[in-house]
Write a structure and sequence with these properties.
The protein is mostly helical. It contains 7 helices and no strands.
Length: 176
């Protein structure tokens, strides 16, 4: 049953998604490659739109769930991706200040963070492959990257600016 599969897969993703970044790569692998619940273009769109919200991994999970199983699928994917982090946060919240992480766990956290950065790189390449249509898109990527790195402009405005620039360029050049 698709509802159970959505819940279970997103539950597992939530266990493996340290810090959220790795979650995007895991969702793409699951939803696009393994199950074909959505196509690469839909994933790129969902990821781009989710960037304007807090918790983009959660938003993408809900989107995938909806596309795969309607409202019940959206609910199942959302519950699956929130279940374990919520339970762990509730269980550890009282004791967090008293917990001293063992050296091995600090090393694991450092290694998992590095792996998440690598997975984000793979996701960026995949998103680029499925959403870039030419040199103008590449120019928008470069300008957005410079603006994001060199200014204090909120990422929402960078995204909105890129979208408006895309509309203007498509209107001016009549790109299909």
């Amino acid at each position: 049953m698709i509802i159970w599969e959505l819940f279970w897969r997103f539950f597992v993703i939530s266990l493996l998604a340290f810090g959220g970044g790795a979650g995007i790569a895991l969702i793409e692998q699951t939803a696009v490659t393994e199950t074909a619940w959505i196509d690469p273009g839909e994933f790129a769109t969902a990821f781009a739109l989710a960037q304007v919200t807090p918790g983009p991994v959660m938003i993408v999970a809900t989107f995938v769930g909806y596309r795969a199983g309607g409202s019940a699928g959206a609910l199942a994917a959302t519950l699956g991706v929130f279940a374990m982090p919520t339970a762990l946060s509730a269980a550890l919240a009282r004791h967090f200040e008293r917990v001293q992480l063992p050296r091995s766990l600090r090393g694991f956290r450092r290694g998992a963070a590095a792996a998440a950065v690598g997975l984000l790189g793979v996701t960026v390449l995949s998103l680029g492959r499925h959403s870039m249509r030419g040199w103008i898109d590449g120019l928008v990527v470069v300008v957005a990257g410079i603006v994001a790195l060199e200014t204090k402009i909120h990422p929402l405005w960078v995204l909105v600016g890129g979208g408006l620039l895309g509309v203007a360029v498509d209107s001016f050049l009549r790109i299909p």
